[in-house]
């Protein structure tokens, strides 16, 4: 795998991705392509359509052409790379595949998208069975909202991962109180002390964590220190409400936490305490009303270790930020449109 696989999967179902159309799904449903878990397989589980697969599988083509699946990304963004995973497909994988992408405003129908102008981000490339293939994407400087996977001519693909950088539409940020730490708004965890059990980016996902595995959890510390994560905010802003959620973490929640703010626009500026070290309770949503200075990033310290289900930092964009977000969006969305 290449480095881009550490970036968020813009297509995964938990971020709102959807397979909105496909040429065929005779053997296994197209929706399986975006399942968040690793592909699974149980041998000799035959249904009315044959062996059941945790992936997308089409009928054998006899009249030429190729199969395709049309995916709406959960979050618009710059695509750094794509993973086409043929896990468990050993005698029925496609020998080749390619990926195209387009940008579409609003909520385009499959018919409208089929008529869109598409940019090839992964050229027709050979595939092997039971293998995760990582391909760097062309056009990494543009924002896309949809991708189209073509497998030539037919067969099965377990997962499609579309890794990249979230670029939020400023229409849904400007003039509003927003979650400055939300992944869907463009925030990211850029450094952390430990990610033994799960990625710290999980804290920034939308919705509530259903299990402790859907948050960030560290290994047990034995050195007397504490774990931490540095979050680059969606945009510079002033935090008005912090929410630290330990839901589902009943025996492994941190004992306490603290929040520290940084202004990366002014390297000489001193870190600012947003919330001092504060006790946490297990399996609880904690909310704190506050007013921070303008910050561009926040460090979450947990003492000494443990797990956090979700981190929310609601606030206002700094003056001038709305203009900057709009200018970036306009610059990055020039290109193919539906």
Automatic annotation (TrEMBL):
Pathway: Nitrogen metabolism; (S)-allantoin degradation; (S)-ureidoglycolate from allantoate (aminidohydrolase route): step 1/1
One of the protein's GO biological processes: purine nucleobase metabolic process
Keywords for the protein's UniProt record, in alphabetical order: Hydrolase, Purine metabolism
Keyword Hydrolase in annotation: yes
UniProt domain Allantoicase: residue ranges: 16-166, 186-316
Stored Pfam families: Allantoicase
A GO MF term: allantoicase activity
Source species, domain of life: Bacteria
Catalytic activity: allantoate + H2O = (S)-ureidoglycolate + urea
Keyword Transmembrane annotated: no
PANTHER family reported for this sequence: ALLANTOICASE (PTHR12045), INACTIVE ALLANTOICASE-RELATED (PTHR12045:SF3)
Record-linked NCBIfam families: allantoicase (TIGR02961)
Family membership: Belongs to the allantoicase family.
Protein name: Probable allantoicase
Species of origin: Actinomadura soli
Lineage: Bacteria, Bacillati, Actinomycetota, Actinomycetes, Streptosporangiales
């Amino acid at each position: 795998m290449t480095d881009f696989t550490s970036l968020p999967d813009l297509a995964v179902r938990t971020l709102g991705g959807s397979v909105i159309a496909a040429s065929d799904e005779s053997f296994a449903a197209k929706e399986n392509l975006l399942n968040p878990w690793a592909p699974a397989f149980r041998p000799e589980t035959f249904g009315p359509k044959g062996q059941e697969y945790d992936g997308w599988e089409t009928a054998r083509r006899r009249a030429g052409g190729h199969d395709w699946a049309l995916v709406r990304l959960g979050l618009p963004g710059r695509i750094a790379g794509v993973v086409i995973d043929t896990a468990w497909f050993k005698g029925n994988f496609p020998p080749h595949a390619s990926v195209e992408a387009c940008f579409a405003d609003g909520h385009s129908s499959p018919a409208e998208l089929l008529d869109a102008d598409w940019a090839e981000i992964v050229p027709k490339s050979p595939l092997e069975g039971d293998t995760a293939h990582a391909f760097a994407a062309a056009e990494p400087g543009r924002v896309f909202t949809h991708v189209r996977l073509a497998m030539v001519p037919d067969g099965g693909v377990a997962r499609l991962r579309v890794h990249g950088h979230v670029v939020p539409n400023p229409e849904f940020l400007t003039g509003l109180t927003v979650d400055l730490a939300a992944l869907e708004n463009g925030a990211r965890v850029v450094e952390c002390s430990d990610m033994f059990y799960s990625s710290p980016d999980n804290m920034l996902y939308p919705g509530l964590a259903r299990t402790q595995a859907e948050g960030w959890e560290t290994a047990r510390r034995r050195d007397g220190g504490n774990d931490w994560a540095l979050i680059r905010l969606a945009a510079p802003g002033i935090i008005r409400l912090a929410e630290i959620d330990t839901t589902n973490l009943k025996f492994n929640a941190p004992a306490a936490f603290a929040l520290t703010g940084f202004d990366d626009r002014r390297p000489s500026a001193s870190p600012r305490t947003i919330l001092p070290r504060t006790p946490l309770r297990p399996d609880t949503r904690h909310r704190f009303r506050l007013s921070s200075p303008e910050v561009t990033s926040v460090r979450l310290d947990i003492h000494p270790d443990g797990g956090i289900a979700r981190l929310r930092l609601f606030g206002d964009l700094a003056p001038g930020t709305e203009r900057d977000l709009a200018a970036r969006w306009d610059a990055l969305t020039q290109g193919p449109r539906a």
